[in-house]
Design goal:
Blueprint lengths: L6 H13 L10 E6 L2 E7 L9 H4 L3 E10 L2 E10 L5 H7 L3 H4 L3 E6 L3 H8 L5 E6 L5 H11 L2 E4 L16
Parallel strand pairs: 5-6, 6-7
Antiparallel strand pairs: 1-2, 1-5, 3-4
Helix pairs in contact: 5-6
Length: about 170
């Protein structure tokens, strides 16, 4: 008899299944909203409904510059990001109700970026559980969640379901 999955694994598996809907060529991200053991919503990253996505129209890349402190030295780092895609966490917030989010948990395949973390911090959720880290914003996102009293943890040792990891570029 197969061993029954724990709840964290079950809901993270669903987040990875949601990520398979993404057409982003850079990263496939999925997320789910859970209250108790009840699934309230799923979302993935992509262009707005009815608009050409990155697979059809290409990425809409912008360059950004960030001042980073490394060993006491300030350094300007150039980054590229696609602005055609709405992040999975943003879509989740757009398509769920505030009252459903109160006291709920968000499972997301990837650690939220700074913008998504800010939005989630004001959404009424009590915990964020993620699988893949996002080093660029890791420290400041962790500090924000601690300040807000929102649980924030990475699922160590988790293995996504077969066929859900896309070959994407960063």
């Amino acid at each position: 008899m197969a061993r029954r999955k724990d709840w964290d694994t079950y809901f993270m598996d669903i987040a990875y299944m949601a990520s398979t809907r993404s057409q982003c060529s850079r990263r496939h991200v999925g997320t789910v909203l859970v209250q108790g053991k009840k699934l309230l919503g799923t979302a993935y990253n992509g262009a707005p409904s009815g608009v050409s996505d990155c697979s059809e129209a290409g990425c809409m890349l912008v360059e950004e510059f960030e001042l980073v402190q490394t060993d006491g030295q300030e350094q300007v780092v150039k980054k590229q990001r696609c602005i055609r895609t709405i992040h999975a966490e943003q879509n989740l917030l757009l398509f769920t109700d505030r009252e459903d989010r109160e006291g709920s948990v968000v499972y997301v395949t990837d650690q939220p970026c700074w913008t998504c973390a800010n939005m989630l911090a004001n959404s009424g959720i009590t915990e964020i559980i993620y699988h893949r880290s996002y080093p660029k914003d890791s420290e400041k996102v962790g500090a924000l969640m601690e300040q807000k009293g929102i649980g924030f943890r990475r699922m160590e040792g988790y293995e996504p379901p077969p066929g859900t990891i896309a070959d994407v570029h960063n």
